Amino acid sequence: KEANNAGLYDMSGNVVEWCFEPSGSLSRVARGGSFNSSPTICFVAYRNGNGPSTARPDYGFRPVYSGD
Q: Partner of 37 for a Cys bridge, out of 24, 25, 29, 33, CB 3.0 to 4.6 A?
């Protein structure tokens, strides 16, 4: 796929990502869909209610480098 206007590539659908969200009832949520998900939930805004103790082969995380 081509990069978008911000220079980012679409990485949806590889693994469900664990994300930190300081607001809401959960501080960590699983977002997006994976190779193992239904096509109806394969979008970045999808939030899964599974807690951090959930272990699945399609759950992962994306490391971020701040450049410092």
A: 33
